[in-house]
Amino acid sequence: MMGHSHALSGVVGWMAVVPLVQGREFLGLSFHLGPGEIIAGSLVCAGAALLPDLDHKSATVTKTYGKVTEVLSGMLGFLFGGHRMGTHSFFFAVLMGVLVQLLALWSELAVQVFVFLLIGIALQGLGFGLDKNKVASGVINAMATAGITLALFTAGVNYSWLGLAVAFGVVLHFFGDMITKMGVPIFWPFFKKRFGQGKGFVTDGPVEQKFVTPLLTIGVIVGTIYLFDWPALLPEY
Question: 16-34 pLDDT, tens per residue?
């Protein structure tokens, strides 16, 4: 799927699991997700859902931070066997989840920086900016990302779930790609067969443009209405 579809799937995916995990414990973590955590998780998942495509030099995520992500893209493409190979596997999802969770345990500042980077990737994937003016688009993205990250920090968002959200976003990505014709090797490096190969729809084809993306967009709207008590947020007169 294209970057915007992956980003939307991250938002919808997080919104879908919130009612399932709310007030429960999972892997030693207790989930008490308020509005801040719902918004933060949606953006984190949206950004994480683009990370597997760092193995492609022309991907949205690769272009987000210029030379930094371009160099990282080349490294991951080499280490994980090229596009839609190792970065599209459970191995990569678990690896990212563990590394990010260790990051969360190590430093609160590191968490805020990583969240900032993921939100920037998410906004880029969701099409936030000006396509014909890369400089202006970059400035708009950076300002919006900084504003959102600062607002979430001020609200005291608890990121104890960050590693799980990142791993979940990565999984959503390769499951999204599994329903396209290229398929993905989800059990790489132990089993390199591409699941879904030769089946499904063409990436950025009419099915994705006219059905998948609109359906995901509707999912975001429905999830937002369901999860947020809008009448309670409005001022009383």
Answer: 999 888 888 877 777 888 8
b/e map of 178-216 (b: 16 or more CB within 10 Å)? bbbebbbbbebeeeeebbbeeebbeeeeeebeeebbeeb
What span, in angstroms and rounded, lies between the C-alpha atoms of 48 and 164? 11
Give the model confidence (pLDDT) of 178-219 as tens digits: 888 877 889 998 988 887 766 777 777 888 888 888 899 999
Please report the beta strands in the chain, taking only residues with DSSP state E, as ranges in sequence order: 25-26, 29-30
Query: CB-based contacts of 113: which residues, under 8 Å, 6+ apart?
Result: none
pTM of the complete model: 0.89
Distance CA 8, CA 37 (A): 17
Q: What is the pLDDT of residues 153-176, one digit of tens each?
A: 999 999 989 999 999 999 999 888
**CA nearest to 123, candidates 147, 157, 100:** 147
Q: Report the C-alpha gap between 134 and 58 in whole angstroms.
A: 15
Distances (CA, A) of 184 to 1, 81, 189, 199: 12, 12, 12, 11
Q: How far apart are CA 100 and CA 164, in angstroms?
A: 9
Dihedral of alpha carbons 209, 179, 5, 214, sign: positive
Q: Are 91 and 189 in contact (CB under 8 A)?
A: yes
Domain ranges of the chain: 1-228
Please give the structure tokens belonging to residue 3: 């970057």
CB neighbours (10 Å) of residue 73? Answer: 22
